[in-house]
Amino acid sequence: MTVSPSSFIQGAGSLLAGLGVTIRAMFQPVVTSQYPRQLLNISPRFRGHIKLLASTENPEKNGCIACGICAKNCPSGSIKNVEGEKREGEKRKTATSYTLDYTTCSQCGICVESCPSDCLAFSADFNCAGYKREDFYYELVKEFEKRKKTS
Amino acid sequence: MEQIGNMIGWETVKMVVGLVGVLIFVVFNALILTWAERKVAGHMQRRIGPKEVGPYGLIQPIADALKLLGKEILTPRDVDKPLYYLAPMIIFVPVLVSFIVIPFSASLLVMDINVGILVILAFSSLSVFSILMAGWGSNNKYALIGAIRSIAQNIAYEIPLLLSLLPIIMMTNSFSLKTIVEAQNGLWFVVYQPLAFLIYFIAAVAETNRTPFDLPEAESELVAGYHTEYSGMRFALFFLAEYTNIFIVSAIAVTFFLGGYQGPFLPGIVWFLLKSYSLVFVIMWLRWTFPRVRFDQLLNISWKALIPLAFINLLVTGGLLKL
Q1: Among residues A73, B75, B172, B264, which is most buried (max CB within 10 A)?
Q2: Residue B63 lies in a domain
Q3: Nearest C-alpha of chain B: how many angstroms from A11?
Q4: Chain A residues close to B48, C-beta within 8 Å
């Protein structure tokens, strides 16, 4: 290990520069978000589980016409029980049940793209947690009604 | 009180009180330092660090200590039992002995021995012994490699450590820490001996097995080094000794180079703790700045740079003193 004086000075300088970086970082504001108390803004293109949107004609009811195209297109077969009924004075059916099995969903978005009435969208729901598999079988029609009530 | 004192001798009472005080200080110091270490680490990485338990996470170390106390004391099946049991106890002896001679202030000093610094250096060599016992007794390859590294490192760095303190001892003609502090009434010795201070500080960081010289405990290579197989309170003893050692090397640096407990306005103990903890902060600062050195680099720094420089420094000091 032969060290020339110039490289020694250079090395010592770089050590001090490194110390400078850390001490400056110490007095700068923190960049982390304190999760349970502080939430980040969710990007508009975030893909959570899908949700039903309101109908364009009648915002009181969901826009799903129970055609079942999403269920047929789903590559993982995660969408089940798409059923609806035709109410009086309406041209199309309205969904009464719509089950999403979130355990197999891969958020590919084919259902959202293929929906003919544009009533499917990604939700921003990111903190889903449950104790059993059944906790992730989402009833989207019920969820829509609940959302409507709270908003 | 007088009677009890006469019966067993005031010196004994003083020693017992001193030892209890030292024990309390050791535990308190380790609690504060673990908290400080995590806070410093956090802020240097632009995080917050512990914040949930108590204000600013101040109760966190107590929660951790309680957890360690409550854990079952596990003994792996194939360990060498006497060595395995003794190691964490022996690592605590040098720690306690060192505190006896460190002058916290002009009057706050358990015992002013006229070979004070020799006591500290001699006993701190014992910790190598305990590390070897822990590494060998654990019957674990990581522990053994960590222990061997630690010994090679501690032996290499004990020499520059001693050699950097010798010029001061030559200047003051005394091994007593109190005399050395009193001799720095005017100017601190760091002004006369900047090179010795630098050498001492580098060697001290290596002696305490701290980054960038933390090869014995390198998490990424050796799990945890010599205390891999220890858990619960036995691990806590290693941890306690480690953090106390950081304080001790800083306290010796303050005593030898930075004027010890001397300073204007504030009482001696405040100055002493202020200076010591500033140095402890610098050691933490180094840890969160520099990456670990390679093993050949580690030994080269000591044998090829620090020891020759320390010898030259010693010779020059001796020559100047003779003039």
Answers
A1: B172
A2: no
A3: 13
A4: 30, 32, 34
Are residues B44 and A22, on separate chains, in Cβ contact within 8 Å?
Answer: yes
According to the model, what pLDDT value does residue A131 have? 92
Complex ipTM more than 0.85, yes or no: no
How far is B290 from chain A, CA to nearest CA, in Å? 8
Q: Could you tell me the two tokens for B18?
A: 């001193």
> Considering just the CA atoms, what is the radius of gyration of chain A in Å?
26
Cα-Cα end-to-end distance for chain A: 72
B146 domain-assigned? yes
CA atoms of A133 and A138, how far apart (whole Å)? 11
List, in sequence order, the alpha helices (H) in chain B. 2-8, 10-44, 60-70, 81-90, 92-101, 116-124, 126-137, 141-172, 177-183, 189-192, 194-207, 219-222, 232-257, 268-287, 295-300, 307-322
Using the predicted structure, report yes or no on whether residue B1 has a pLDDT greater than 70: no
Mark yes or no for CB contact B46/A15 under 8 Å.
Answer: no
Contact B171, B248 (CB under 8 A): no
Choose among A139, A117, A120, A136: nearest CA to A128: A136
Q: Considering only CB atoms, which chain A residues are within 8 Å of B288? A: 22
Residue B4 has pLDDT above 70, yes or no: no
| B35 within some domain | no
Answer yes or no: is pLDDT of A108 > 60. yes
Nearest to B241 by CA among B74, B57, B26: B26
- pLDDT, one tens digit per residue, over B50-66 is 888 888 888 888 888 88
Fold of A50-150: Alpha-Beta Plaits (3.30.70)
Say if strands A79-86 and A93-101 run parallel, antiparallel, or are unpaired: antiparallel
- Rounded CA gap, B242 and B66, in Å? 19
Q: Which residues of B7-43 are buried (b: 16+ CB within 10 A; e: fewer)?
A: eeeeeeeeeeebeeebeeebeebbbbbbbbbbbbbbb
Within-domain flag for B105: yes
Q: Do B43 and A25 touch (CB under 8 A)?
A: yes
Domain ranges in chain A are: 50-150
Residue B124 burial (CB count, 10 A): 22
Shortest Cα distance, chain B CAs vs residue A44, angstroms: 27
pLDDT band at B278 (very low <50, low <70, confident <90, very high): very high
Residues spanned by the domain of B169: 76-322
Whether residues B289 and A25 touch (CB distance < 8 A) is answered with no
Chain B interface includes A1 (CB < 8 A): yes
> Residue for token digits 């630098």?
B198
- Total domains, chain B: 1
Do residue A22 and residue B305 have CB atoms under 8 angstroms apart? no
